[in-house]
Amino acid sequence: MTKKVLLIIVEGQTEQIILEDYLDAHFADTTIRFDVQREDVLTKWDAHKRIPNIKNSVIRVIQSYLDKYKFLAKDLTAVIHITDADGCFIAPECVRVDENIEQKLFYTEDAILVKSDKRKEQIEQRNEMKARNARILIANDHFSINRLKVPYQLFYFSTNLEHVLWDERNEIPTEKIHKADEFIENLSGTIEEYLKAYMPVDAELPYRDKMKKSWSFLMEGSHSLQRGTNVPLLFEMIKTNVQ
């Protein structure tokens, strides 16, 4: 029997490094495939610099992957989508100008620092766009691909993956892959066990309640800048859809 495909959409290669071996080992009856975007689908403008329909954007990503690797919609058991929170739910006044920062953008526990008023406006627009799109995708538990319903779920790392794994919100891009490899090599337990320590909700709650509460928590105050994740819930989703 041909194995079903679990498609995991991620922003960068580090998510694949962190999760792939564990998923392959624990869900051997499923083909785990990562689609690395090298960009954030939730903040991508269209060719005319307009905000696209985020559902259509995700469907295009899925369809593009199916076409490229000669899969059909019926081959998919589910689609998992992982994003970085990037402080997108903070209030506009928490995006602050600080000309003394070295980077163009610097995340803190309760603010995003930028070097200019123009950059502040850009980040406020980015946050608004990402928060809006995240809310739409959270409410969406499937996509219709070629008239077939495929289960879908969006998960997050906050502030980002690097923050959750080794407590660095502002990692140098060129260091990410090396540090992710190093992290996995030195991890004593499983990645699932490690991530559970940063879940913001009671692990004993039903899956749907945990999913809803984890996103509600992220949207409060400056939580989308603080260390947390609901990625452990993706393991529950996979068990539900592939077993």
Task: Briefly characterize the structure.
The protein is α/β, with parallel strands linked by helices and about 240 residues long.
Can you walk me through this structure?
The chain has 243 residues and is α/β, with parallel strands linked by helices. The chain has one domain (4-88, 124-242). It contains eight helices and nine strands. The protein has helices at 13-26, 54-68, 117-138, 161-166, 176-186, 191-196, 207-218, 232-242, and strands at 4-10, 30-36, 76-84, 95-97, 105-107, 112-114, 142-145, 148-158, 228-229. Strands 1, 2, 3, 7, 8 and 9 form a six-stranded mixed β-sheet that branches. A hairpin with a 2-residue loop joins strand 7 and strand 8. The two termini are 15 Å apart. The model has no long low-confidence stretch (mean pLDDT 95).
Low-pLDDT windows of residues? none
Strand content: 15-25%
Largest sheet: 6 strands, mixed
Structural class: alpha/beta
Instruction: Report, as a whole number of angstroms, the end-to-end distance.
Output: 15 Å
- Tally of DSSP β-strands: 9
What's the mean pLDDT score? 95
**Integer-rounded radius of gyration:** 18 Å
Shape: globular
Q: Number of domains in the coordinates?
A: 1
Relevant terms:
9 strands; 8 helices; globular; 243 residues; alpha/beta
